[in-house]
């Protein structure tokens, strides 16, 4: 039998989703007019109506200026068309880069949040392992002697992980680490 979304999702997950959506809406509301303009232009240029407009404009321009056309030719060598297309390409690529820069900033922000959540989760799991190990000791339960358990009990130092990752990247494949 089908469930509605509120029955399926845990309340904390629902709260987190709503918080993320509200944050995105707030960020959209606080954009300046220049960002809104760049977004609108980028959104339109990435759409099929933009392609259709260009097909009609460029197709009409070319047909108008064909040698056999009964209309008076104003761009026989298509120099004006080429110049207009080049200038348009410059501006469109600029708007796309503006949007990509903003998307990259948002991606960096999300990556930072993911790192923080992962570190918090790792810290909590480490604490739980220590707690369960102490409980097992008090209850007289023997552990399996897994060497990984001792490793998992230690806190991860993010700066040490990054240093090691950099070292491994710098050493190259097949070199001693």
TrEMBL record:
Report the InterPro entries cross-referenced here: DUF1003
What are the UniProt keywords, alphabetically?
Membrane, Transmembrane, Transmembrane helix
| Positions of transmembrane segments | 44-64, 76-98
**A Pfam family it matches:** DUF1003
From which source organism is this entry? Anaeromyxobacter diazotrophicus
So which domain of life are we looking at?
Bacteria
Give the protein name, as stated in the record: DUF1003 domain-containing protein
């Amino acid at each position: 039998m089908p469930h509605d979304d509120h029955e399926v999702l845990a309340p904390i997950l629902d709260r987190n989703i709503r918080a993320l959506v509200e944050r995105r809406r707030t960020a959209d509301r606080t954009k300046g007019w220049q960002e809104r303009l760049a977004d609108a232009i980028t959104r339109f240029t990435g759409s099929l109506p933009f392609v259709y407009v260009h097909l009609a404009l460029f197709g009409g321009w070319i047909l108008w200026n064909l040698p056999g056309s009964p209309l008076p030719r104003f761009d026989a060598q298509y120099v004006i068309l080429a110049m207009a297309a080049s200038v348009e390409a410059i501006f469109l690529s600029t708007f796309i880069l503006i949007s990509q820069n903003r998307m990259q900033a948002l991606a960096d922000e999300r990556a930072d949040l993911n790192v923080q959540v992962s570190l918090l989760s790792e810290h909590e799991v480490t604490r739980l392992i220590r707690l369960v190990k102490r409980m097992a000791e008090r209850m007289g339960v023997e552990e399996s002697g897994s060497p990984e358990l001792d490793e998992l009990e230690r806190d991860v130092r993010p700066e040490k992980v990054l240093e090691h990752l950099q070292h491994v990247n710098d050493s190259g494949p097949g070199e001693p680490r």
